[in-house]
């Protein structure tokens, strides 16, 4: 893997924006999400750990998108390429995985749609930021 194609500023910004999008998404859809996930809000334990894990996961996602997008575009990603990659990664890996897992776990389609749309937004944001920033900031 060629890490020289990564614009690290874009990776960090993409992860931050994706994390903020997720916070806004689930704040606005918290009640329907909890109902769909069969979570009793009175028994929920509050913890910062899931938020930290989410940010680390999105940082890793942004790094992988930057690596693969950089490799495919010869180190010169674009906004359009980033959006296309974000969508394709979501469709090929996230939407399929969520759909399968939620069917086996007995969750309804509402949970799949809420979580799936969240991850679509995350990957579109990551792809757009990585693509918009282009290649490495320092060469």
Summarize the structure.
It is built from five helices and no strands.
**Largest beta-sheet characterization:** none
What's the alpha carbon Rg, rounded to whole Å? 16 Å
Helix content: over 70%
**Beta fraction:** under 5%
Helix/sheet category: mainly alpha
Q: Note the overall shape.
A: elongated
Which quaternary structure do these chains form? single chain
| Whole-number tally of structural domains | 1
Average of the residue pLDDT scores: 94
List SSEs in N-to-C order. HHHHH
**Distance, first to last CA:** 17 Å
* Low-pLDDT stretches: none
Number of strands: 0
Number of helices: 5
Structure description:
The chain is an all-alpha fold. The protein has one domain (3-133). The protein is built from five helices and no strands. The longest helix is centred in the middle third of the chain and has 26 residues, at 79-104. The model has no long low-confidence stretch (mean pLDDT 94).
SSE diagram, text form:
Layout: H1 8-28, H2 30-36, H3 49-72, H4 79-104, H5 109-133
Helix pairs in contact: 1-3, 1-5, 3-5, 4-5
Distinctive features:
139 residues; mainly alpha; 5 helices; 74% helix
